[in-house]
Amino acid sequence: MQLVEIFKALSEESRLRILSMLIEDEMCVCEIEACLKMTQSNVSRHLTALKKSGILESYKKAQWNYYRISKKFIEENYELWIYLEKRLKKLSYYNEDYEEYKKCKNQELCNLNE
User: Which residues cross the membrane (predicted)?
Assistant: First the structure.
């Protein structure tokens, strides 16, 4: 993927927040919504941009879509990934978002609807 597309995808704060959660583990869309207190349409729009740039990959499990950092992105942009991994955890909202992430993961939100 072109570097311009990657940096466009990274130029939005909500996308950086999403990435900072996905550093920890893959997440379902509903987990991202709950964790970051965002609407489904907003989360989907940001996930689409991150996936289109090659940063994320997704898969479907039952009716849920799960997202994770693309292994190909990490391999092809290793230095950038190391930088992001380090810097995303230093964002002012990271600690609060991370606490919400842990709560969401413990709730097993996707399993509630089965």
Answer: none
